[in-house]
User: Fold these one by one.
Assistant:
Number 1:
Amino acid sequence: MAELIIMSVVLMGTVLLILLLMVRQDIKDVQESVNYIYNNQDKVDYIYKVVKGVRKEREKKEQRKSKERSST
């Protein structure tokens, strides 16, 4: 019985260690992303403006296509 308890404790400890290592890597990735955004704010702003402009153009094209379809 004691062996079973010891084995289950070891198994749970191993699982928790694996989960901790996985979460730790995710946290590290998020920290690196935040640091990149903070250190390159001007690039991020430029990319945001470009993406916003492309979205507006796409919406305009879709509106034109829908108007052309409805008029024919």
Number 2:
Amino acid sequence: MSDPSAYSYPSPLEGYENLEPLSDERAEDGKSFKNPQNGVLSKAYSGFPDPLSKGREGGFDVHIYHFQNNPDQAAFAKALWERIRREC
């Protein structure tokens, strides 16, 4: 198995520097966070292929797995999570 530390990746927040911090406010479902609106929705909001759900909850869920005791992985996971929230 290859060593993940042998690779480097650009920050998921590249191009998103110096923006206002994201809110910790929860969405109506009480589980997810409210994300800032950028005025343009992805086609994925209405264009999932059948039989995936086209409803409010969408056709998939995103999970970011990482080793919490690895500071590099934890920082990258947090940056990736923020990037995903900013693209909604």
Number 3:
Amino acid sequence: MGETGANRDVSLNRLKACVYLIALFPRRNFLGFFRFHCETPSMLDTIRRHSRSWIAKGLLYFIVLTFAIWGIGDYFSGRKVQVVATVGDDQISDAEYEQALDRAMSYYRNLFRGSFTPKMAEQFGIKQKVLDDVIERHLVTQEANRLRLLVTPDEIRSEIMTTSAFANEQGQFDQTRYTAVLHGARLTPTSYEGQVGQDIQRAILTGAMTVPIFVEEMVEAAYRFENEQRKALYYTLNANDFRTKVSPDQETLKKWFDEHQDRFMTQEQATYTALVLDPALLETQVEVSDDEARTYYDNHASEFQKGEERRTRHILIKADPNDQAAQDQARATLEQVKADIEAGKITFEDAAKKYGQDTTSNQGGDLGWVFVGQMVPPFEEATYALEPGKVSDIVSTRFGLHLIRVDEIHPARTQDFVEVKGQILVNERHRKALDKVFDLATAVEDAIAQGNSLSDAAVSVGLATVQVGPVGRNDVASPPQQSRDVLNRIFTLQANETTHQGIEVGGESFVFAHLDQKIAPQPKPFDEVADKVKQAVIDEQAGQLAKATADRLVEALRAGKDWRQAMASIEIKGQPTASPPFKRNGTIEGDGDIPDQIVSPLFEAKQGDVLDPIDDMNDWVVAQLAEVIAPSTDGLTESVRDDLVKGLEQGLTEEHHKAWIASLRSRIGVSIDEAALATINPR
């Protein structure tokens, strides 16, 4: 049976990918990969199956990103486009890089629950990571085009139809939603589908590069490497012990201050003009009629259903479920209490006050109105089986043993319109104000894109700007115009630069800002920071004395003295600490401890070696390798072996991928404009 056009394209892609891989990796362990993947018609299906989640994620990020970019953006705003990097014939614009950086920052903020700051991004090297990712994207696209990897319309259609951003409430592809999403993002189907095709191309080629590597012969060596243990003797020279031996004079302090003024600077500040689009501020400009509220009520009846509620009391005696004696005693007490209640000797309320062991006992065991799903299952089942006024049998929960009484029942019902009218009016007014925020944000962005100033854009939509500052990067306050997100963005702007998109605040508000002035950090006067300077100098000099003493201890040990002799020769009191056995990852067998800083150097040392002093936050550690403990292979079980194989394969596969990308960079050529890159920072 002859191949269809689509099948021929798939076969051609499969053949190209296999030939490409053989050319890149002419080694014996690649033969198994070729036979497994390249001799079966399912190669691309396998790659795509493993890559599908990655593609979907990429597409979803792409959709989310386009929604985040209100209006036309920088390309049509008159702003000069900078090129931050060149990849072969491709140019990576500042806008492309900035969007990728924003996307990464959003990801990490979600990961860290909002606490991820630009400073943390700097420490984690996010700028470079994002740049590498964008460059890799261009490299792989160019390589896929060079290999003429084909993507069929059916493949593109399949990816789009399984993208959740275009699905309706039933999870099915919705053509109307697809069109609306692209329209809202100012994309045409042709341009978006071209992007999808490129994503699939990259996934095919990147997936093909995930080459399984045979590593069986490396397993035992890796096991020995990971499980070798060592013991050490070490002694820490604490800088605090030397503080009383230093007393810097005023001249020394002022000289040190002059040399370290960068440690005593005012924070950078900014003044800016802000236009705030906040639904709370716009609610007075929208109206919701009683008829609109009634229509909402009629169309959303399910929102106003109230389940059955029961006014409930209980008497709790706490008892550990695992302590049978306590359980028996609590049960006996409650049985007597129930008998006394039913005999009229005591009321339920008084019994709760006398015997109850939770916070409701003072209120006669009153739990208030309870509803389904609020209480633990055994308690709920007993409560909803009771008639009003009846006392339950003893009920056991993880909290202890209970007696329960239901005083009153409110049946399930639909709330009257009069009951909920006020809340409907509030909610609908807020919804209309929120719609107005989105409409105004689009109008403001379009006005700025046409060359209008922020003040003129504000006038065009009937709003006024506010002046903010001078404020520092960390001067966060409650108004939207001084939120963390706004301040982060402000300090990425150049003087007289305006944000071209609204800065989202709290999920509902948007702030446009124009940077009026940046005030550079200034040195603080010496008199203002004199105490801090003195403490810093004392810390530094004490650390220097600790280091000098550590050097002398090392010298004595290397001269052949034992620890007792060496420490006595330089008048150090105490004795070294003998560490428990530890592995190269720092894990310890048994009790004891060892400073993290000395673990790796000790695994590079020979038995008996004395390390150079190691800095531990201004304290200095002297260490000697006392013993090397070779591991037994008895612990190399099948499960341990399997874990090692997986780890080795993953690590070596990543190295293969890095080597492949490095070869593409070398052949295609990559240049980076560091000056342009420096103007873009995480926000």
